[in-house]
Amino acid sequence: MGTLPFDEMGLKAGKATFEGGSLKVEDFELTPSLGTSVMVASACITCEALNLEPPYFVTAGDIGDGKRSKELYSYMAANLGTLDVTVLAMHYIMPDISGMRNILNSLGKRREGMTLIADAGAMYAAKAAELAEKIDIFTPDAGEMAYLADPKATHPAYVEHLLFKLDASEVLTLIRKAYESGNIPEILLVKGPVDYVVEKGEVVETIDEPSISAMEAIGGTGDSLTGILSALIHGGYEKIDACIKAARINRVAGKLAHPDPATSISNIIDKIPDALKEVGLCA
Amino acid sequence: MKILDSIKKKLGPRKKEALEKGKGLIILNEVSEAMQVEKMLKSFGYGVRGVAPPPEIRRGCDLAVEFNLVDQLGVERLLKTSGLNPLDIVALDNLSQKPLDITKEKDFGSYLMVTAANMKITVDKEKGTIVNISGGGCPDVPYLAVSLVGNRITEVKNPGENGYSLCAYMLEKAYQKALSMVKSEQTRECT
Known about the structure:
Shape of chain A: globular
Radius of gyration of chain B: 19 Å
CATH topology of chain A: UDP-N-acetylmuramoyl-L-alanine:D-glutamate ligase
Radius of gyration of chain A: 17 Å
Largest sheet of chain B: 4 strands, antiparallel
Order of helices and strands of chain B: HEHEEHEEEEEHHH
Helix content of chain A: 40-55%
Distance between the termini of chain A: 30 Å
Structural class of chain A: alpha/beta
CATH class of chain A: Alpha Beta
Strand content of chain A: 15-25%
CATH superfamily of chain A: Ribokinase
Number of domains of chain A: 1
Largest interface: A-B, 59 and 51 residues
Structural class of chain B: alpha+beta
Strand content of chain B: 15-25%
CATH architecture of chain A: 3-Layer(aba) Sandwich
Oligomer: heterodimer
Largest sheet of chain A: 6 strands, mixed
Number of helices of chain B: 6
Number of domains of chain B: 2
């Protein structure tokens, strides 16, 4: 679930498909760019390559005033009980503490057997609501890691200067601080020059190859990672294993696109099928 | 112009009284309203800044406007005449906290990336074109990215003019830093 940047678009829910560079849900079609559209398109591509059912996409148009974000929170809280959900990936949305609380409260017993992933605005909301422990996996970058490490911050904009100033090589310090706060999921997939897979505060794997420095500048590379991760868990991969594989697949897709800092994310997600083959997940 | 100057003078901040008496906080309903109030008050010469509101009334992506309490009457009058209705105006003690005002820069050779909190903007140094926007989590970031990417940084509208959220607030800071660096690069080339 997540918003799309179209003012006129009302709430939509249905199977998402990705064909010929276009993401489709219900009667709406768009070319993926930074944000939820890249996350869902990447999940579609991964699901198709692994012969899995495509993702079910719940979205609404919001250009930042937050009105349809509220509708989306409400819809999810009211309808999650009727959907057959294995993985719920929550993405770009206006952070809203009560909206996130309502979604998580609506799950009840259905929470068992469901994997919850939060990235972007949904991750900010879960942390600000002090409900991060209710989520299974966060996928922050270094800047967002500083936010998670600051117990007082309710948005990455309000992070303590000292934490923001820490170099990317000091991400481990931020991870430690975040787990000290207690308001953090069991698993983190921290994306950056080195990707860290963290379980209960311990780094269980680091992924730094292939190393493509331009990826940091390309909008959407974190979104594609979340989409791939969601599809792998839906496909039956255990959560930690899925994090490790998703990080590798995303990096290989980047390598295959031969990017520079001006490359579009669409060139990278096109390479996901080849990346899945290269890491041995499909023939 | 004379009328406007007269209004600004009348409603503007009093200079002679001590500013250290304390700060006040304008609590608004939405981040977009807070950004509007901050911009409007600055245009009238008030020393204001966006800060986090008190925790008990935060709703997640909140922004309030800090001002000098000595200016309260003029500020309230301006808000009223501008049709802006704050939820509350409170005296602030030691509660102040402000959005990050520092940026980080990374040089990719032909490209420059500026990071502000969770937002990144990357520009082609020679052409001055915005080539990528990355990060964020609020819904206006993908919306702003569409209008910014592919265009010259000197010719686009400031993200702060079209954005609503704190992510847009930080994108504006990254944008301003990148803009100043591109301009200084271009000035250096001309001389």
